[in-house]
Write a structure and sequence with these properties.
Strand content: under 5%
Number of helices: 10
Pfam families: MazG (PF03819)
Organism: Candidatus Planktophila lacus
Order of helices and strands: HHHHHHHHHH
Shape: globular
Largest sheet: none
GO molecular function, one term: nucleoside triphosphate diphosphatase activity
GO biological process, one term: dGTP catabolic process
Radius of gyration: 22 Å
Protein name: XTP/dITP diphosphohydrolase
């Protein structure tokens, strides 16, 4: 049943994008749809936070639509087309390559080694030599900075960063409170906290780049 419904979605998307289908759908591009992919992803996160099972099912469908929509648009590319089958094949092959402990019988000590293996395999596949390779700079500032710090630690690149000091132990509540107070401080001083953190993230990226070039 799952396969037949997935194929049905392929056929629906093809009908919408083909002559005689929907003019709006036919006009869309990868660029015009990007905002919808973000919106649908955030709406799914909201449904997870609310433990709304019906909402999760619906929002996952909306996210899936974006994958199929982009894949159908990609079929029309004049020189480098690909389909949803190509997308599915690529991710299935990637999962097999990145999980040798499942598909090749590699023995691992635990999840930390699994993550290390994933990163090592990924780096080899992508030919990555820099801590900055593959970091999506367009992502929101908070996950961007977190990713940059994670990569710097992983690649053993030192980053000069003022350490936050607090008498409270670090918990979800205390960290959330500290971040909220910093955001309020920024707003009181008419500073955009997202932009401020993004600018600092770029400074971290420049530190990493400078260190790696030595």
């Amino acid at each position: 049943m799952a396969g037949s419904e997935l194929q049905r979605l392929v056929e629906v998307m093809d009908r919408l994008r083909s002559p005689g289908g929907c003019p709006w759908d036919a006009e869309q591009t990868h660029e015009s749809l990007v905002k919808y992919l973000l919106e649908e992803s955030y709406e799914f996160i909201d449904s997870v936070d609310a433990k709304d099972r019906e909402g999760m099912r619906e929002e996952l469908g909306d996210v899936l639509l974006q994958v199929y929509f982009h894949s159908r648009i990609a079929e029309d590319h004049p020189t480098d087309p690909f389909s949803i089958e190509d997308v599915a094949r690529a991710i299935a092959d990637k999962l097999i390559r990145r999980h040798p402990h499942v598909f090749e019988g590699l023995e691992v000590s635990g999840t930390d080694e699994i993550i290390d293996n994933w990163e090592e395999i990924k780096a080899k596949e992508k030919g990555r030599t820099s801590a900055l390779d593959g970091v999506a700079l367009a992502q929101p500032a908070l996950p961007l900075v977190e990713k940059l710090l994670y990569r710097a630690e992983k690649y053993k690149v030192p980053v000069a960063l003022k350490k936050y000091e607090s008498d409270q132990p670090a918990t979800n509540e205390s960290v959330g409170e500290a971040l909220a107070s910093i955001i309020a401080w920024a707003r009181d001083n008419e500073i955009d906290p997202e932009n401020a953190l993004r600018l600092y993230g770029r400074q971290i990226a420049e530190q990493i780049k400078a260190t790696e070039s030595r």
